[in-house]
Amino acid sequence: MNVLKNHKKSAVLTLISRKISQRQICRDTGVDRKTIREIQAQLSNSPMATGDPIGQSQIPPPRPTAPEGAELPKTPEHARSACEPHRTFIEEQIELGRNATAIYQDLVDRFQFKHRYNSVKRFCRCLKVKRPEQFDRLEFLPGEEAQVDYGEGALTLNPKTGKYRRPRLFVMTLRFSRRSFRKVVWNSSKEVWAQLHEEAFLYFGGVPRYIVLDNLKEGVISPDLYEPKLNSLYLVMLNHYGVVADPARVCDPNRKGTVENAIQHTQGTALKGRRFDTIEAQNEFLLHWEETWAAKRIHGRAKRQVEEMFKEEKPYLKALPIERFEIFREETRTVWDDGTINV
C-alpha cells in the first residue's frame, strides 16, 4: 500500500489552503489528482471546516508577505551572481549575438573580472531569450503570380504491375486567390510538365504574369539566382502563353509557401487514407473536391472565400492565345555518312 509522505502531504495541504486548482497541484507536486481530492474531502469533513483550530494546524501558515509600500528584503551578497554589477554591459553584448566566451574575455580585459568563466556562462544563459523566427509576408496583385510544385498523390492501382503505388501530384496555385489546379500523373517528363501547365491555364481561363517553380529538371536545367537555364520545351511553352518563369532559390521553400501549403492541404484533407482503382478516378475526385470544398473554404489569413477572391482575380489574368501550344519532343539523332537520319 502506497502512503503519501509527510512533506508531500504538507505541500498539498498548503496549496489547497491557497485555493490552487487540483490540476496545478498535481503538476507542481506530482501527486495524483485522486489523492488530492481525497485530501480535500478529508479536510471538508474535518473539524477545520467548522473553524476548529485543531484542523487549522494541519495546514502550514501562508508565507508572510511584505506590507504594501514596504521594501522587499534584498538578496544576500553570497547569493548574487558575480556578474550582476556588469549586467548592462552583458545584456548589450547578448543583443549583439556574442557568446559567453567572448563576453568573459571582454570582462577580464576591460573590467578586470576576477571570477571564473562558468559564472558568466550561467548568467548569460539566464539573460538569453529565444525569440520566434520572423518571416516577411509577401503580398501580390491579382493575376500577378502562380506557384507550381510536385507532391505525392493517394495510393492508386497501377494497371501495369497490379500493385498500389502513389502517383505524382501536380499543383498550380494562384498566389492572390489561392485557387488551385490539381492533377496526378504516373510519370513526369518535360513534355508532361509543359502539358500540365497548359491544362492549368485552361482550367483558370487565363494566364498569370509569372510562375514560381522549384528547380526540378523538368523545368530548370541549371539553377541560378539571376540567369537560370530553363528547359527548352518549357521555355517555348511559356513564351507561347506570355509567362515568365521565376525559379525559387535552392533550399528556399518559403518562397513558394502557398503551393507548399496547398499540397499539404490536399494530402492531409482530400487524399488522406484514400485508395483509387484508377488514376482517372483520383483526378475526378480532386476536381470535385476543389470545386465543392477547397474553393468554398474561408482562407485563414485573408478571411475571405477562395472562390470570391478568384472571381476578383480572373479579369486580371492574361487572355489565352487563340491556338494551343503544340507539344514537341526533343531527341538526339545520328547523321550517317550519306546524310541520312534514322527517325
Structure, described:
It is a single chain. With 343 residues, this protein is α/β, with parallel strands linked by helices. The chain folds into 3 domains: 6-56, no CATH class; 83-127; 145-316, Ribonuclease H-like superfamily/Ribonuclease H (Nucleotidyltransferase, domain 5, 2-Layer Sandwich). It is 38% helix and 12% strand. Strands 5-4-1-6-9 form a 5-stranded mixed β-sheet, sandwiched between helices. Strands 3-2-10 form a 3-stranded mixed β-sheet. Strands 7-8 form a two-stranded antiparallel ribbon. Helix 6 (100-111) crosses helix 7. The model is unreliable at 52-57 (pLDDT under 50).
How is this structure best summarized?
This protein has 343 residues and is α/β, with parallel strands linked by helices. The chain contains 12 helices and 10 strands. The protein has 3 domains: 6-56, no CATH class; 83-127; 145-316, Nucleotidyltransferase, domain 5, CATH 3.30.420.10.
